[in-house]
Amino acid sequence: MNTNVDLHQLIEAVGDAVIVSDANEKIVLWNPAATRIFGYTEQEALGKTLDLIVPERQRQRHSEGYMKSMETGTTRYGTSLLKVPAKHKDGSTLSIAFTVGILFDGEQKANGVVAIIRDETARFAEERALKK
Questions:
Q1: First to last CA, the chain
Q2: Which residues pair with 93 in a beta bridge?
Q3: Pairwise CA distance, residues 6 & 3, whole Å
Q4: pTM of the model
Q5: Distance of alpha carbon 11 from alpha carbon 46, whole angstroms
Q6: With the CA atoms of 59, 79, 31 and 10 taken in that order, what torsion angle do they form, in degrees rounded to the nearest 10?
Q7: Residue 62 CB: number of other CB atoms within 10 A?
Q8: Is 5 exposed, middle or buried (0-12, 13-18, 19+ CB in 10 A)?
Q9: Cα separations in angstroms, 63 against 40, 58, 68, 70, 98
Q10: Quick check: helix, strand or coil at residue 26?
Q11: d(Cα 82, Cα 47) in Å, to the nearest integer?
Q12: Strand residues in 23-128 grouped as ranges (E)
């Protein structure tokens, strides 16, 4: 078996969104699954901030947490699966589940975040319907 995995090919092939943002919340990596889930093309997303997909009412809390993670090099969520609302290009609200990881430069200073994101909108709607 060839273990020399092409990371670019892996990121392009996975069914979950892979989004990487820099220390200033600017998107630097946006895979095809991110386009499928959020509606923005890679060209539309790259260089924009995460406000692109963070709903208005969550933005301040999100930015404060993000900056704290860049300062401390840690996230209070660890490897927990986070479930939050997100925003689609068409303005609709999505229910997403994701994990985050902090990325570091050569001096071990936090310089970005990677998020692996799954669209749970349909499943959450089914759960709500069942509860009723």
A1: 50
A2: 87
A3: 9
A4: 0.90
A5: 15
A6: 170
A7: 15
A8: exposed
A9: 21, 9, 8, 10, 17
A10: strand
A11: 24
A12: 27-30, 82-87, 93-104, 110-119
What would the two tokens of residue 18 be?
A: 């892979």
Which helix (H) or strand (E) covers residue 20, if one does? strand 17-22
Residue 105 CB burial class (10 angstroms; 0-12, 13-18, ≥19): exposed
- Name the one residue in this structure whose structure tokens are 């479930």: 83
Question: For residues 86 and 94, is the Cβ–Cβ distance under 8 A?
Answer: yes
4-54 pLDDT, tens digit per residue, is 678 889 999 999 999 999 999 999 999 999 999 999 999 999 999 999 999
Helical H segments across 51-95, by residue range: 59-72
Could you tell me the strand order of the sheet in which 110-119 lies?
A: 27-30, 17-22, 110-119, 93-104, 82-87
